[in-house]
Specification:
There is one protein chain. By secondary structure, this protein is mostly helical. Helices cover about 55% and strands about 5% of the residues. The chain is built from six helices and three strands. It has a three-stranded antiparallel sheet. A hairpin with a 5-residue loop joins strand 2 and strand 3. Helix 2 crosses helix 3. The longest helix has 16 residues.
């Protein structure tokens, strides 16, 4: 019997990280990459109009690479730089394209 360590993976985490940079990611994979809980990601979708994951049958969310980059930026603004969600939304809206 082999263990996870012998196989060299710990399950879904390595699968999410092993995807190509251009691949769409599920909400669970985004959580593994960023550490942000799914309920927070869903809440941010309502607060940040730029954050629009693709939805498929059954309302499954698929985040594009630009969505993941935006999530990382929102997280940085709110948790490291001390912005409110409203302030972060304004900063993102006002940034040059």
């Amino acid at each position: 019997m082999t263990t996870a360590g012998e196989r060299g993976t710990s399950g879904g985490e390595s699968a999410a990280l092993a995807k190509a940079d251009t691949a769409f990611r599920t909400i669970g994979e985004v959580k593994q990459l960023t550490g942000i809980a799914p309920h927070i990601l869903r809440y941010w979708e309502g607060r940040f109009p730029q954050l629009k994951p693709v939805t498929r049958a059954g309302n499954r969310r698929y985040y594009r690479p630009e969505d993941v980059a935006l999530i990382v930026e929102i997280n940085r603004l709110v948790h490291r730089e001390g912005y409110t969600l409203k302030g972060a939304a304004k900063a993102i809206q006002d940034r040059p394209a």
